[in-house]
Design brief:
Length: 431
């Protein structure tokens, strides 16, 4: 058996590979080895069998690994640690560390500010309400890392009060976002650094003076308040009053309401709205969220009444200044409950008429939807009837002789033509 051409090519390729490997690694090539590789190829034609060809092993070339030059390298057995390659991980770990650390610091700072408020106003709350605080003897509870809450009950004319303290966001990224947005967007309010006193008043019964939607708000917070309050958007209009500071504006169902609340010295609202910590005051028996228009029994509520006073959170050293504002808020709740604020009959009729209009608008949506559904059902019945008549006519035409069939078709065409003419005439008259 002779060595084939393929065998010679393989041996020649091995020789070239040896030369190339030696050149790439920088090692010298042994001439004897190349001669020994080429000689069998030259003698292969004369060789009687492949077993007579000498086998020469190729020298291993190996790979040259470049030395590590970017910083130190530490070895622990088979483990190699190169600090330079861990720089991205180190940066991420550092960012996470400072993020967690900042969150912990902000949480602790927020809790300290809330504690300063509740301790500074504790005596006022306890004097105004029979019970104030949380279960277990706590003065307040945390609601996350930036909100704190307490409840008060046991006061005539007030079913209860919920006090919410909203401090700076404990998430540093969120805090920076809100700060940047408030600087870039006019009227944006992140609703942080605020104190909200939400009084639940007994359900108003009868008139006068027992049902109203009224508010006084800082001009800078007007848009935010209106966007979040359906009752103020729907029932009130802005109203100027010379007795109010220029930094605030009133929202009322009638201008007489503003006079009734502001002119009376017994109410004390002027003292509240004149404070540098004042943000907004809302008194309303209507819901904040729009009632469901698609409800079968949509109606305006008659069993709720709320009073909400929102204040800015002062520095810890000035928390005691809020005691007078809290007392005035409780006094306003007493006056509203005692119905000492009486509106003129003109204002009452205007309020009543507006509420009737709003209720009609709410009910109109469902009525229109029902009317549209009824119309669709009637149109479907008419279409079904016409299809049945058409199918019956086609069946009748098919059963008639040809002459009668043509006569009937002409009659139907004439009928359709007259109907189209009448329809066009009606449309022309409407125009």
């Amino acid at each position: 058996m002779k060595l084939s051409t393929a065998g010679a090519v393989i041996l020649l390729a091995a020789s070239v590979h040896a030369w190339g490997g030696a050149a790439s690694t920088g090692t010298a090539v042994d001439p004897a080895s190349t001669t020994s590789l080429a000689a069998p190829a030259a003698a292969s034609a004369a060789s009687p069998a492949i077993s007579d060809v000498p086998v020469v092993a190729a020298k291993p070339t190996g790979l040259v690994v470049p030395p590590y030059t970017k910083g130190p390298e530490y070895k622990y057995g088979q483990i190699r640690i190169r600090p330079y390659e861990l720089i991205p991980e180190a940066v991420i770990a550092t960012i996470l560390f400072f993020y967690v650390l900042s969150s912990l610091i902000l949480r602790r700072t927020n809790a300290a500010r809330a504690k300063a408020f509740f301790e500074a106003t504790k005596q006022t709350w306890e004097s105004e309400f029979a019970a104030f605080g949380m279960s277990g003897g706590k003065l307040f509870e945390k609601d996350g890392g930036s909100e704190f809450v307490a409840f008060g009950t046991g006061r005539r004319g007030v079913e209860g009060v919920q006090v919410n303290v909203k401090t700076m966001d404990h998430d540093l990224v969120q805090a920076l976002y809100h700060q940047a947005r408030s600087l870039a967007e006019i009227g944006y309010n992140a609703k942080s650094e605020t104190i909200t006193l939400a009084f639940v008043l007994p359900a108003p019964i009868g008139t006068p003076g027992s049902k109203t939607v009224f508010s006084i708000v800082k001009r800078s917070s007007l848009k935010t308040l209106l966007d979040s309050s359906w009752d103020l958007r729907t029932f009130t209009t802005t109203s100027e009053n010379a007795l109010l500071p220029p930094s605030v504006i009133a929202l009322a169902e009638s201008g007489d309401q503003v006079n009734a609340f502001v002119k009376s010295n017994d109410v004390g609202l002027r003292d509240v709205v004149g404070s540098e910590w004042f943000e907004s005051f809302v008194l309303s028996d209507m819901p904040v969220v729009k009632p469901d228009e698609y409800s079968e029994n949509v109606a305006l509520p008659t069993d709720q009444y709320r009073m909400v006073l929102t204040l800015r959170l002062p520095p810890s050293s000035r928390m005691g200044e809020l005691n007078d504002l809290i007392k005035v808020a409780c006094n306003v709740a007493d006056i509203v409950n005692a119905k000492k604020i009486i509106f003129p009959s003109v204002a009452l009729s205007k309020i009543k008429k507006r509420r009737e209009q709003v209720l009609e608008e709410l009910q109109k949506v469902l009525k229109e939807e029902k009317a549209a559904e009824l119309k669709e059902q009637q149109e479907a019945l008419v279409a079904k009837k016409k299809k049945a008549e058409k199918d019956a006519l086609e069946a009748k035409i098919k059963s008639l002789p040809k002459a009668e069939r043509l006569k009937l078709l002409e009659k139907e065409k004439e009928k359709e033509r007259k109907s189209a003419v009448k329809k066009a005439a009606k449309q022309q008259q409407k125009k």
